[in-house]
Structures are given as structure tokens and as C-alpha cells.
UniProtKB/TrEMBL annotation:
Residues 299-473 form the Microcystin LR degradation protein MlrC C-terminal domain. Pfam families: DUF1485, MlrC_C. InterPro entries: MlrC_C, MlrC_N. It comes from Teichococcus coralli. Residues 5-288 form the Microcystin LR degradation protein MlrC N-terminal domain. This is M81 family peptidase. It comes from the Bacteria.
Length: 495
């Protein structure tokens, strides 16, 4: 028998409805063909997991394109159209045995609320109902009926902070082969809840830890084939925003229905407990001034690039400048003009630049005088992990400004700094600081754990969990902004 052939690839980005800066093609790391497979093989990524599943089954993987970007504003329609055209063209010509897609599930374009659903539906229209289509999504995906109807098995990350990207891709890939082998006849039971989780939503802590344990036990006992609990990205102003709980039975639905009904009821009952609180920035900085055994690595809750915010908030920079004393600290600010001015002045030059606060309005821009200690373009890095260990990324134009003990890292594009290698790529050692700011709320806590004490701080801004301050329109009604009385309904989908 000739080796089976699997189509994989696509686009992965998490969007933020209220970030006005569209995500363009130059924000993506793009790989194609054999190079895409070679680069993803062995990495803790969804594509890496799909490749591992295929190679374990002796199958070939074809990746027409893989576009990956960090979170940000909606993706330009032309970028999504380019990816979709490449995937559909491959599906038309390829005569593939199955399709397994490493996507995010929480992307937007100006024209589309659910581009991933559109991609999966159009692939389904080409290959017909018999060819298995599976997908791996982020836990923060906005999962729609369109996706669930067109996709045979959807696997979501089971961890937040996310550590199981590769394992999720493996689940999606293995499901496609199980279907091809006749070992799996997926029957989906799912429920939607119009609510948001807002901060107390790590999967290694209550209440989500208990739900995941219950779901995992059902899989291990053979009652269901696979489960996912999606806690949607909170800044998507889309119809049907909320939670999706799902389980696949193998050939039968009863146990999956019972499990989903129980998990959905438990999730709805836990809605108040899923809203977290965070320590204040000032109290954390006061601790840093007094001295802590290890650096404080602070996640700027209000301007999380990891959640799609612009990364140019000056709230933390103002607070550090207003301390009245200097401590070694590193702060990242997205500011293309500031980068250009520093690069024009050159390394070693003294400059005065006004940075940040162009899109984030929680604090005004800051005028700094300092020395340009590093500058460049295209610095590459490999995530030290554990989250996304081995993942490659690059930093576009940048300049590092030193003002006394303060290091301000200016970049033309936003980054979440979820891995310390971002700083190191620009010549800044985070372990030598007393305070390091990241633009992440969860994921940095895994990758900086070896360096310092990781704390997400309550700061205002576009990605603050004070969602009442955001201009939601079409996503409502949802808890906690609306007073709702919900009895979860379990729905079924058979192939
Ligand atoms: Zn996520």
C-alpha cells in the first residue's frame, strides 16, 4: 500500500477586536513545503504534533503554507485569502487521505468573524464528507457551529498556561488516522455557555483543574474518545462569544452527552469563581525596591500582546520612573518611530525620544533620554521553553535604550515576551534585572520560572479583565456583563 498522504498547514493567530492595528503579512513567520515540515518536526507546536502522528503512522505530510503570528489586531483579509487559496489549491490537486489543521481558532479578519470555520468548510466542500478533517485549536478559540459541523474531530489545548501544543496536534493527527483505519467513528456532544472566564482560569488550579480531571478520567476510562474545554479569548466581539465544552464518543453518544452536560453545568456554576483578582503594580514595585531573592517578572495585564493588545502601554514605564529610586529594570515598548530614531542615531549615541502610548491610552507617551546600547533588525531566537520549546521566531527592527538602570526595549512590532529569549535576542539579560515586564498574563510564567518570581499585575488597558470598560456590541449578552439565566443544552453532531 502506498503511504498515506496528509494535508496540514494554515494560519495561526489570536485576534483582539479592539486593537485598531491590523496584523499584516510582515507580522507572520511563514514556512512552506518540506522546510515547514523540517522546522516544525520535534517542536512543541500543533504542527509538530500532527507531523509526529503522521510519521508514527508511516504517512507523508504536505504543508503548502504555515503562517504563524503572535496575537494582535485582526488579520488583513488579503493575508487570510492567500493562505486559504494555498490550502484549497493543495486540497483540489492533492488527493489526500486526510486533512489535519494546526490553527488557533480565535482569529478575525475585518470581514470575517470565523475565518477558521470558513477555511474548514471550504476544504470540506472540496474533499467531500468521506475524507477525515481534524484540527488542533488553542484553548482560547472561539469555537463555532460552522467549525464543528465541518470538522470531524477538533482537539483543543487542555492546559492554560499552554504547555501541550504538541500533544494537541498529536490528538488531532491520531484521530485522522484512527478514522482512516476504521477505529474511530466520532460522535460529537457539545454545549455552549454565554460567559467569559476572566483571570482565575488556569487549568492547574481550581475550578478548571477539577473539570479537566473529570474529562481526562472519562477519556482514560474509555467512555469517550476525546474532550476539550474551550475558554474563549475574552476580547472577541463576535456573535456567540463564550465557552464550548465538547466530547467525542466513538460510535455512540450517550456517555459523551452525559459528560458534556455535567461539565457544562459545573462550568456555569463556577462562573463567579472564574473571575480572578491580581496584585497591584505599585505593591509589586515596592517589593522590588525593598529587594526580593529573585527578579520579579511582571505580566502587564492591561497590555498583553499575548491577548492581542498593542504592546505600547507606558503604565509600567511611568510607574518605574516615578519610583523615586532606580532599580535595574527592563520594559518593552512597541514604537516603530522610536526605533527608527534610535537606529538613525546609532549605537552609542545619546538620544531623547518620546515612546509608547500611541494606541494604548491608559497612560500618556514617555519622553526618555538615554544611550542606544543595541539596535538592529531580524534578530532570531529559539524559545527556551518549556512552553513552545524549540519554536523559532524573529524580532524585526529594534533598539535598546539605557537610561540609568532602566533598559527600554523598543521594537517596531509587538511581542509578548513570553520567553526570555526575546530579551536575549536583543542583548538584554532578564536574569540581571530586579524587574522585568512582559506583555503576557499566563504563558510567561512557565518560561521565566527558572529566572524569577512571575506575577501578573492588575494594570489598566485594552486587555484588562475589566471588560465592562470595553466597547462590546455583537458579543453580548454574556456573563458577567449581562444577567443571564442559563440551562446548558447539549447538542450532537454525527458524520
Ligand atoms: Zn491561548
Amino acid at each position: 500500500m502506498a503511504a498515506r498522504r496528509i494535508l496540514a498547514g494554515g494560519i495561526a493567530q489570536e485576534s483582539h477586536s479592539f486593537n485598531p492595528i491590523l496584523t499584516g503579512r510582515d507580522s507572520f513567520t511563514i514556512t512552506e513545503g518540506a522546510e515547514a515540515v523540517r522546522r516544525a518536526r520535534g517542536t512543541n507546536s500543533t504542527l509538530g504534533g500532527i507531523i509526529a502522528a503522521a510519521e508514527a503512522a508511516g504517512a507523508e505530510v504536505t504543508v503548502p503554507v504555515m503562517f504563524r503570528a503572535q496575537s494582535g489586531g485582526p488579520v488583513e483579509d488579503a493575508v487570510f485569502a492567500e493562505v486559504k487559496a494555498a490550502m484549497l489549491d493543495a486540497a483540489r490537486k492533492g488527493n489526500f487521505d486526510a486533512i489535519a489543521l494546526p490553527l488557533h481558532g480565535g482569529m478575525l479578519t475585518p470581514a470575517l468573524h470565523d475565518p477558521e470555520g470558513v477555511l474548514i468548510q471550504e476544504l470540506r466542500a472540496i474533499v467531500g464528507p468521506a475524507v477525515p478533517i481534524t484540527a488542533a485549536f488553542d484553548l482560547h478559540a472561539h469555537v463555532t457551529p460552522a467549525t464543528l459541523n465541518a470538522c470531524d474531530v477538533l482537539a483543543g489545548y487542555l492546559t492554560n498556561p499552554h504547555a501541550d501544543q504538541g500533544a494537541t496536534g498529536r490528538r488531532a493527527g491520531d484521530a485522522a488516522f484512527a478514522m482512516l483505519d476504521g477505529r474511530l467513528d466520532p460522535v460529537l456532544a457539545w454545549a455552549h455557555l454565554p460567559m467569559l472566564t476572566l483571570g482565575n482560569d488556569r487549568t492547574d488550579e481550581a475550578p478548571l483543574q477539577g473539570l479537566h480531571a473529570r474529562a481526562r478520567a472519562a477519556v482514560e476510562a474509555g467512555k469517550v474518545y476525546d474532550t476539550s474545554i474551550f475558554n474563549a479569548q475574552q476580547f472577541l466581539d463576535v456573535p456567540g462569544l463564550g465557552q464550548v465544552v465538547m466530547a467525542y464518543g466513538n460510535g455512540r453518544s450517550e456517555e459523551a452527552e452525559v459528560l458534556v452536560a455535567a461539565l457544562a453545568a459545573e462550568l456555569w456554576a463556577a462562573r463567579e469563581a472564574l473571575i480572578g483578582t491580581y496584585p497591584g503594580l505599585e505593591e509589586c514595585l515596592a517589593r522590588a525596591v525593598a529587594g526580593t531573592p529573585r527578579p520579579l517578572i511582571l505580566g502587564d495585564q492591561g497590555d498583553r500582546v499575548a491577548a492581542g493588545a498593542p504592546g505600547d502601554s507606558t503604565v509600567t514605564l511611568h510607574a518605574l520612573l516615578n519610583l523615586g529610586t532606580e532599580i535595574p529594570a527592563a520594559v518593552p515598548i512597541t514604537d516603530a518611530e522610536g526605533v527608527a530614531r534610535c537606529r538613525a542615531a546609532g549605537v552609542g549615541a545619546a538620544v531623547t525620544v518620546t515612546v509608547g502610548g500611541r494606541y494604548s491610552t491608559a497612560a500618556p507617551p514617555v519622553t526618555l533620554t538615554g544611550e542606544v546600547v543595541a539596535a538592529g533588525e531580524g534578530a532570531s531566537l529559539v524559545y527556551a521553553g518549556p512552553a513552545e520549546k524549540g519554536q523559532r521566531a524573529h524580532v524585526g527592527p529594534y533598539a535598546v535604550l539605557r537610561a540609568g538602570k532602566l533598559t527600554v526595549v523598543l521594537t517596531a512590532f509587538p511581542y509578548a515576551y513570553i520567553d526570555p529569549e526575546y530579551y536575549r535576542a536583543m542583548g538584554v539579560e532578564p536574569a540581571k534585572q530586579r524587574v522585568v515586564i512582559t506583555r503576557s498574563g499566563y504563558h510567561f510564567t512557565l518560561n521565566y520560572a527558572a529566572i524569577g518570581e512571575c506575577i501578573t499585575v492588575d494594570t489598566p488597558g485594552m486587555s484588562s479583565y475589566r471588560v465592562a470598560e470595553l466597547p462590546f456590541t455583537v458579543a453580548r449578552p454574556f456573563y458577567p456583563l449581562d444577567d443571564l439565566d442559563v440551562t446548558p443544552q447539549v447538542r450532537l453532531r454525527r458524520r
